[in-house]
Specification:
single chain; alpha/beta; nine-stranded mixed β-sheet; three-stranded antiparallel β-sheet; 18 helices; globular
């Protein structure tokens, strides 16, 4: 009976991975001695008829519940207008709801019976129970042969396993300095702003975060589930990916996938690329494939509320998740910070710049199709009359201040700008000067090289940024007669004399022509154009490490 109860309460099983023979790469066709292709070492789990039909009913109920949840404010308003929210009507509705819950509980029991009669599921549930009960490496290795509902996966690493930080709730974020007021004025200001703050909180925690992170919406995840399962199977099959659950300091759980190339012949295998996905990206089908195909060791993770990760994707939760991912890479996987490269696409730039700021010894930072600040992009998609509410909501609850965090990092940086980007432009995709990646570059260069990036330097860099093709870039570069060797020698001499710490005062005693040359040289070294739209994957051959002296 204990096993039957485990089958009733157990997770849904999606796939069973079976390795046939020695560990080998899947891209090549494998032929048996008879000349026929060897079967794949993975397969979908085959549920019995009773479990299959019960699962379908419960999945439909889950989708209907999600739709009801999102439409509940409108439904409540409609019921109120129709007079259905009286005590007698509410009691009747609660009776119907109770009956439905009992029916669903019965269907769940039937599903458990179907699983109980399936030897394949019985074997899986035994392995899962052993992994939870004993936690031995051998048990977890057996468990990695299954793909199932990640909520039941045992925790592989906790945030406090290798840190002495006393604050167990959150990691630090950059926040605006509070304005100094007297106690009376501060109280009056708080009371005056209270309605606006309540409105901002409601907007941020309802439509705001779902618009900002649509990948956290359950219905979208349900629609993408077959694609996510296939992508995960590819990572496990072809690249021997190792899935793990990390527990962050706020109690959220982070779904990760690690591809280890350190023991292979890949020239970049000793370097680890940690990937930070976009607002509707998952490691199963996201930017992770670029460094994987380029031959690096790669660690991918999903945002809070995405796929197997729990929680909601707010800035503090994002930073907490990124922190435990970094701790896992360093203390569990055994990579030195100097061997870690941070690679982010789009909104992933927030967690990548936070990690670069908080772990300053990381090797490099690559930001693809990212932006400097969320406010201009939020104002672009919202009505003009909402400007005040939108700005306040973003600053208080959704403040993705990538540019500010980026300037706290002292290491090599490369920005990839999409020349046809339709997402992070504030006007139209054809207007390349409205791409917020330009502002990210200018903020970085103005912080690191303030003397070079004076008025003249900013002007020529903006002129260079207007170029959307390699030919136009080269035309601007040659017009100002930039001598790369001279620029490099100036920067090398300054570094030898004054050290690496930014900001540099190089260019202070230089002619305007020299500063213009340096400005263009530095801009070209820190930004790479890619002729594509926002969502086009970056080809492996275009994945370059940042320039450094």
């Amino acid at each position: 009976m204990a096993k039957l109860l485990s089958c009733i309460l157990g997770p849904r099983l999606y796939r069973v991975y079976r390795e046939r023979g020695s560990r080998r790469s899947r891209p090549e066709a494998i032929e048996s001695s008879q000349g026929a292709l060897e079967p794949s070492w993975e397969s979908y789990y085959q549920p019995r008829s009773l479990e299959k039909h019960a699962d379908s009913i419960l999945a439909l109920a889950s989708v209907l519940w999600s739709i009801s949840y999102y439409s509940s404010p409108f439904a409540a308003f409609y019921l109120y207008r129709k007079g259905y929210l009286t005590m007698s009507k509410v009691v009747a509705i609660s009776h119907y709801a109770g009956t439905m819950l009992l029916l669903l509980a019965g269907i769940a029991c039937l599903r458990g019976i179907g699983r109980w009669t399936n030897p394949q599921y019985i074997q899986f549930i035994s392995v899962l129970e052993d992994a939870h009960r004993y936690g031995k490496p051998e048990d977890k290795r057996k468990l990695s042969s299954y793909n199932f509902d990640f909520r039941s996966w045992p925790v592989d690493f906790r945030w406090d396993e290798a840190t002495s930080r006393s604050d167990s709730r959150s990691v630090p974020l950059l926040r605006a300095e509070p304005k100094h007021r007297s106690a009376v004025n501060n109280f009056l200001h708080t009371v005056k702003k209270l309605p606006c703050q309540i409105a901002s909180y409601i907007v941020a925690h309802t439509i705001g975060r779902r618009m900002l992170y649509p990948g956290s919406v359950y219905l979208l995840q349900k629609a993408l589930m077959p694609m996510l399962l296939q992508g995960q199977a590819r990572l496990v099959e072809e690249y021997h990916g190792k899935r793990a659950k990390l527990a962050a300091c706020d109690g959220n759980e982070v779904d990760t996938m690690f591809m280890d190339r350190r023991d292979t012949s890949e020239p970049h295998g000793k370097k680890l690329v940690i990937c930070c996905e976009g607002n509707a990206g998952f490691y199963e089908v996201g930017c992770l494939s670029t460094p994987v195909d380029a031959g690096y060791s790669v660690l991918g993770w999903n945002h809070p509320g995405f796929a197997g990760s729990t929680g909601v994707p707010l800035p503090q939760n994002e930073a907490n998740a990124m922190d435990v991912v970094m701790q896992y890479a360093i203390h569990h996987l055994g990579f030195l910070p100097e061997d870690i490269i941070l690679y982010a696409w789009s909104i992933g730039g927030f967690t990548a710049t936070w990690a670069a700021m908080s772990y300053p010894d990381v090797s490099a930072l690559i930001l693809d199709a990212s932006f400097d600040d969320l406010v201009p992009l939020a104002l672009k998609v919202m009505p003009e009359s909402w400007r005040g509410l939108v700005t306040r909501t973003v600053r208080l609850y959704l403040n993705l201040n990538n540019g500010e965090q980026l300037c706290k990092y002292q290491g090599p940086v490369l920005l990839v700008r999409r020349t046809k980007d339709e997402i992070i432009t504030t006007t139209v995709p054809e207007d390349i000067m409205s791409n917020r990646g330009n502002d990210l570059l200018l903020k970085l260069l103005q912080f690191r090289y303030p003397k070079v990036m004076a008025e003249e330097g900013v002007r020529v860099v903006r002129e260079w940024l207007e170029a959307s093709t390699p030919m136009e870039e080269a035309s601007v570069y040659s017009r100002y007669e930039v001598e790369d060797d001279w620029c490099l020698s100036v920067l090398t001499s300054y570094q030898a004399e004054h050290g690496d710490s930014f900001p540099w005062s190089v260019g202070d005693d230089m002619t305007p022509e020299g500063r213009r040359q340096l400005a263009l040289f530095l801009a070209r070294k820190h930004l790479q154009n890619f002729e594509a739209t926002h969502c086009a994957p970056l080809p492996p051959q275009d994945f370059h490490l940042p320039w450094h002296l």
